[in-house]
Amino acid sequence: TFTIRFETVYSGSDERVYVDNIITTWCTIPKCYDTSELQNFEAGLGKWTCGSGCGFQSDDKNVWMGGKGNIDQLTRTFTKDEIGGMFEASTVRFSFDYTTTTTQVDDKIRVYYQVDGGTWQYKEYLGDGKDEHKELQFTVPADVETFTIRFETIYSGSDEFVYVDNIITRWCSVPKCSNELENFEDGLGKWICGSDSDCKIDDKNVEMTGKDNANQLARTFTKAEIGGMGQLSTVKFSFDYTTPDSTEASDRIRVYYQVDGANPQYKEYLGNKKDQHEEFEFTVPAHVESFTIRFETDFSGDDEFVYVDNIKTEWCSTPSPLGYETPFIDVYLCDTKPVDVCLAIDMSGSVCNNGADSPTSDTFGCNNFHTQKQFAKGIIEKLTSINDDARFSLVTFSDNAKKRLDLVSVAATFSSEIDSIVWTSGWTNTGGAIMKCTETLTNAANARVIVLITDGTPTNGYPGVGRSRTYPPKMAKHKEFATEKAVLAKNAGILLVPIIIATDDTDKPYMKSLASSTDTVVSVTNFDLLPAVINSVVSITECATWLQTP
User: Among 294, 357, 409, 473, who pairs with 218 as Cys (CB 3.0-4.6 Å)?
Assistant: First the structure.
């Protein structure tokens, strides 16, 4: 919030000031869409290409680079279609792992980066490193078309090699917001009057008359105008209108809005008003092709009319999502400290589509459940590699929630416990999972985090209320129970991080409401995308203390 307050300091009680026309202007900065690409070379080079002296190692699932001199090696160009609409200056963050063999202390590895084919810049690393993890970042200007990243080696001998793996590239596409104001100073502009209506320009506004829902003033915004609305977005619309004394209280003005030519909706306004300003907004889905706004009049007589002026339409062009949403957390800004993390793993029926998914060879569940377990292990392995003091507890949940591990600091113990978990099926007791995790963190001395991995909305948990995914009163109670447990955890200083695998049945807005903030929500559209967000989850966890600070 921000507050503005007037006060007077007068010498007498009969002194006064007159204040008028207070205008406050502010700008809400649009949130960027954080996107990342992980290349771990599990299935080859992917979109990376090798120059001379570079190749894919199928056994070790990494890329080798060797050779003497300044050799052009592994390269990747990110195109505009991939990076989306970078309408404002943004930052690219890049990281990779490497190790070397038979190299010398004066050998070098360089990572070059280039924006829109311009000047190459680079970061240089020692060529004799072992099991190194490196990170860099660079700025890209507004409206960038491409950026390219290239590895090079500067070795003293031809028998020296570096092995590169786990390349992660993260960028942030910022939505471009636009508006159109039509004040009819030079005619109708792109608005049109219906052929069967009494609609015309009069005194630099539009006059509309007629009875019985006459089709009046309309405007269609095309895809070429609104840009690539790759994400769910909002259109804001406002206009001024006035009516003469001849209109009646029963008269109406309707403003219809329609997305992609289907299912028109409308807002209704009284037809006997003077100097009115009206505003409303409506949602458009991802990848919308067009939206249309249309005025209609429902007057009791043909001699009644309305004047419309100052029509303003606002919308935001957004990049296409890659199937997941993560906050843009800059770990360089965080004061990272030891952290205690409870992971809650969903064992409900929907994870394996109630048994419809292919079972895994280990008979412990299905492919989705196996992916979820590997995701949890990946978080722990990554976190322990950068935070020696991290500790972990484990909870599983379906009909009920079960504590599997109290806080431990040995990643191998945690991974072994995860490997032993067998999918149970059942309902989704989200509140129970949060409650059990909270219990494991009650006496923890470090920053505390709950990572809640789930694909569903609560369908069980509230005491004395039966399980249900279709009966609204029961579902509302189970949501109430989960919300209560989430609030208790957050009030106790625990950072709550939902990892939402969003299916058609998932109440995504509700699941997001359980989070500590919008910066602690991660979502994917399917289980296979979970590996792509491991680093984002680790960044949130590492920044737990910073994110908890008001």
Answer: 294
Helices (H), 353-501: 367-386, 411-419, 430-440, 472-491
The amino acid that residue 336 corresponds to is T
- Whether 29 has a pLDDT exceeding 50, the answer reads no
| 42 backbone dihedrals φ, ψ, rounded to 5° | -70, -30
CA distance 314 to 181: 9
Q: N- to C-terminal Cα distance for the chain?
A: 12
One-letter amino acid for residue 187 of the chain: G
Helix (H) or strand (E) segment spanning residue 542: helix 534-542
The Cα–Cα gap between 484 and 432 comes to: 11
Rounded to two decimals, the pTM is: 0.51
Q: Is there a contact between 529 and 522 (Cβ–Cβ < 8 Å)?
A: no
Residue 321 identity (one-letter amino acid): P
**C-alpha torsion sign, points 198, 201, 207, 213:** positive
- The whole-angstrom distance between residue 366's C-alpha and the CA centroid of its chain comes to 28
User: 184 in the Ramachandran plot: left (φ > 0), alpha (ψ -120 to 50) or beta?
Assistant: left
| Chain segment 192-234, per-residue pLDDT in tens | 988 656 788 888 899 988 776 666 899 999 888 887 666 667 8
Structure tokens at 22: 């207070």
CA–CA distances in Å: residue 31 to residues 4, 22, 262, 319: 26, 29, 29, 12
